[in-house]
Design brief:
The chain is α/β, with parallel strands linked by helices. It is 25% helix and 25% strand.
């Protein structure tokens, strides 16, 4: 497996007291040495992040944004922030977030402004306020597409605000929005918040996307995190100790909830790999404090309209695409305007991962040449692991974070913007001597060797 570090040998066995050999389960983790480290930096990053509003029509567990009464940000201020991001981030795309950005009364004007600057734009939405009229407006304004957050952590009106028990229950709703976007030719992306409770459902979400490959461009898996409020954990802002409780931020939680958090990007990768062996990771961003962490992990899966998978895009293809795009456009690439099809197999000359997929495709077509004409697309599968509190009080952030926004004339991590809104700056954390933060339950006996 080209990008997998095998933790246990395939034929490894243990012997119980009875003397009976028992085969160990093989666990696959991504290997940083065989992945492309995305070349982003603070001043050369393809994504600019705009918080258009703090008004929202759905409540989501762990949401980074509190409703604090600020409401819709003035359009002129948003335009200034877009220009700031264009200058200091060198963006290829502007992500419009919130709150629910569709609710902003001047959202069409904002999207049109981004388009006039030669940048792409994507709206992050829960979809509730989306309709045909709004889609027509966004198409006229030049919007590239939408990234939907629809998952079991939400209390959604479509379900009469009853608790949603399974991600599978939401697939019809997701499909409804995917078909709406297809009608207007929008980029279509769906994401969920991954916790220990729904990790086992991740393969089903990917299977749903695979079965609707002509409608779905990508899947995002946001791995849930939170900051603990408990004795011995002290918070500081600008050198002064501040009071923090479980209601202070959308992601401050009590000790009991904090101790349930253990899923890592590596674990999500392993679950996907177990169910879809053709899936491969290709690129990553590490952490700012933990050298083993994967904060962003990009991968893909080639799928045809019959649901057959063949392989994935490799690290060499990603590296070449980013380098060539930057050479000709002056920015790094995110959210491609055109979908990748069978033409990707030309990269088999340079990329061993694509070559492996091409060989599998040829074997598949030789049996029945008609199969060559079945449409095929690449399904993007990305993971983002939110900030981690380390035992010494440091916070492990995304190295060269793509999702940075503007606060009072400076760049801050969008996932921690509310700390700045409330306290004026990012929080610093002190863990008192003798306080032991729980160990990650997902840690294995052995880690990948680098």
């Amino acid at each position: 497996m080209e990008t997998a570090a095998i933790i246990n040998e395939q034929d490894a066995t243990t012997v119980k007291e009875t003397g009976t050999p028992v085969k160990k389960k093989t666990v696959n983790y991504p290997d940083k040495k065989k992945l492309y480290r995305l070349p982003y930096s603070l001043n050369d990053n393809p994504i600019g992040w705009i918080e258009a509003t703090d008004i929202c029509n759905i409540k989501c567990k762990g949401c980074y944004r509190l409703i604090m009464g600020e409401g819709h940000k003035p359009a002129e201020q948003i335009k200034e922030e877009i220009l700031f991001l264009r200058k200091w981030r060198n963006c290829d795309n502007i992500s419009l977030a919130g709150g629910e950005p569709i609710l902003h009364p001047q959202i069409k004007e904002i999207v049109s402004f981004i388009t006039s600057l030669g940048m792409k734009s994507v709206i992050l939405t829960n979809g509730l306020a989306l309709n045909d009229e709004k889609l027509k407006e966004m198409k006229e304004a030049g919007l590239l597409g939408f990234s939907f957050h629809i998952d079991v952590t939400q209390i959604r009106p479509e379900f009469k605000k009853e608790k949603i028990k399974s991600e599978l229950e939401l697939n019809d709703l997701r499909l409804k929005y995917a078909k709406m976007l297809k009608k207007y030719g929008f980029y279509s992306h769906f994401g969920i918040t991954v916790t220990a409770d729904n990790l086992h459902e991740v393969p089903e979400l990917i299977r749903w996307a695979k079965d609707n490959i002509m409608l779905i461009n990508g899947i995002s898996l946001i791995i849930y995190r939170g900051l603990p409020v408990m004795p011995g954990i002290n918070y500081y802002a600008r050198g002064e100790k501040v009071d923090v409780n479980v209601d202070t931020l959308g992601y401050t939680i009590d000790r009991e909830e904090y101790e349930k958090i253990h899923v890592r990007a590596q674990d999500v990768y392993a679950v996907i790999k177990e169910h879809f062996p053709d899936y491969e990771a290709m690129g990553y961003l590490g952490g700012t404090a933990d050298h083993t962490s994967f904060k962003w992990l990009w991968g893909s899966l080639f799928v045809n309209t019959k649901g057959k998978t063949f392989g994935a895009i490799g690290n060499k293809t990603l590296e070449l695409a980013q380098t060539v795009y930057h050479f000709f456009h002056g920015t790094y690439l995110v959210y491609p305007k055109k979908r990748i099809g069978k033409s990707i197999f030309l990269m088999s000359l340079l990329d061993p991962i694509v070559r492996k997929a091409f060989k599998k495709f040829l074997k598949y077509c030789i049996v029945n040449p008609v199969r060559f004409f079945y449409p095929m697309r690449s399904l993007g599968i990305g993971m983002v692991q939110a900030p981690d509190l380390l035992p010494d009080g440091r916070i492990d952030m995304c190295d060269d974070c793509p999702d940075m926004c503007v606060f009072e004339g400076r760049l801050v991590n969008s996932c921690r913007l509310d700390e700045c809104r409330i306290f004026g700056d990012l929080l610093q954390i002190q863990v008192e001597d003798g306080v032991e933060l729980k160990k990650k339950a997902a840690e294995k006996e052995t880690e990948p060797a680098y």
